Amino acid sequence: MEKIIGGQGTGKTKTLIEMAHRENAVIVCETPERMIGKIHGYDYFGIQCISYAEYIGLKAEGQTQTGKKYAVDDVEALLRYISDGTIAFSVSN
Hints:
4 helices; globular; 3 strands; alpha/beta
């Protein structure tokens, strides 16, 4: 699993989109409609996007496809979505 780390405006989302395109991955994001606009703005088409809620629902129902790849945009936002009480998280580098 690759981590894309950088400050605001450093191209993290563009890198994620490029990776999703290259790996034929679904982008998991807060607002799929907004992400699709960004995808088209970078001149990519055909990348599927689903919301955090859709992704969590698929996982809970065991409906994610074996071998299907997912690229998560903004892990911190996903954690806030899962639990408003999250106060910290750790990652390995």
